[in-house]
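Appendix B. Worked example

We walk through a single record from start to finish. Start with the input: the chain for N-acetyltransferase domain-containing protein, Nocardioides panaciterrulae, length 281.
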Amino acid sequence: MLTTRHGVRPLGPPDLDDFLHLAERDPVVNVFADHRARTTTLEPRWLGGEMWGRFEDGRLVAACHVGANLVPVQARPADARAFADRALVRGRSVSTIVGPQDAVRVFWNEVAHAWGAPREIRWNQPHLEIATTPAVRPDAGVRRTTRADLDQLYPACVAMYTEEVGLSPEYGGGAELYRARVTQLVSRGWSFARFDDDRLVFKAEVACATPYAAQVQGVWVPPDRRGEGLATAGMAAVAEFVRQEIAPVVSLYVNEWNEAARAAYEKVGFRETARFATVMF
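Next comes the structure step. The output line below is what the pipeline stores for this chain.
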């Protein structure tokens, strides 16, 4: 297939192997796009968007997931600018730009004048990984959730999302879609929680996974139970579940200003390996 301006074109199923080789250059950082490629085979109707590739001398050198989230993959500054050029022609359809800090910054600087003021920009988000036994004792009370837990789990997910993003996932009629997403994670065995006297006091989910890594999201403890070590012991348990049954490396990214969360992850044994940035609309 011929490439377009600056060597950028949409990828499809015939490009899957090349894309996976590209993502495997940094398989933990690229886990989201890698997961999307593996689960959709880069078929646009399943992607719910596109995966753009940039080519040099016929070789795939960078990519960019463009769906609800725009996520650069192995993008150098020149690649990010090339993707931004294509995005300016297309217009903004994404709700979030997220990924390695340098690529996101270059991309945003190119499109900011046309895409309008974002709701929030978070430039410094440590990307953390653990590939060893946790440094603290896992909470034995943490378990996989089931559909029977949804009456407590779903409101906790809404509360976490609203607190983290600043906007309810139910806003604008999104409740049905968000509940379906929570239910999907439960069905996959990717949702974990601890309950005390039938009350949820800790939760976390796996957002995406590949043979190399899994990314955790949605870590939350009710406000009145914070400061008790529930997140630390809970994340140790989640890390053990994930490493034993889903993927060998567990990753997440956290806001720089969230000192309590960062301290909990450090106690567990998570270590920073990169910096992410997020632009939210």
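Two observations about the output. The domain at 130-273 is CATH 3.40.630.30 (Aminopeptidase). The chain is about 40% helix and 30% strand.
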